[in-house]
Structures are given as C-alpha cells and as structure tokens.
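Researcher: Good morning. I'm working through a list of sequences from a screen, and I'd like to move beyond sequence-only analysis. For each chain I'm collecting a predicted structure so we can compare shapes side by side. This is the next one on the list. No need for commentary yet; just the structure.
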Amino acid sequence: MLRDAVRALLAELARTAPGRSVEVRIPPFGAIQCVAGPRHTRGTPPNVVETDPMTWLLVATGRLAWADAVASGRVQASGIRTDLAPYLPVHRS
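Model: Good morning. Structure tokens for this chain:
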C-alpha cells in the first residue's frame, strides 16, 4: 500500500510538472524525472531530490512543508532546479 501511494504521487507530480530536468527518487519504490528545463541524459543528474517514502507522502500531501523537510534534512535536494515547492502539495485535477 505504501508503495502504491508513493508511485501514484510521483506519477501525479510528473503529470503536473512535466519535464526532465529534475530527478525525484523515493527508494526503494520509484523515481521520476519532472520540471521543465534542460534534459539530462547521461551520468548522475545535476538536479536530484531524494527522500524516504514516509517523508515523500507527508510533503506530497501538504502535511509537511517543503522548506521544513529540506531544512531538517529529511529531503536531500541538490541542484538549482530542485525547489519543488511550487508543485506541492500534489493535487489531482
């Protein structure tokens, strides 16, 4: 059930923030590329967001603010395009 929720929220983020400039990783359940900008094709992406499944669910549903999650180290975000705050919480339309 946790896996399905993580994957559904990742898919919705990819839909609402289309692009390939940021890689969002939620191990061990999934990873997507999203956010418009330069496309990355080889090696380690320059813009990476990574967190654990529970933190992702909290951030994606608005129960934990993006800035608070990053500041506390619960979300690791490296790269100039990794601020996902404009796309959170994830909403289905």
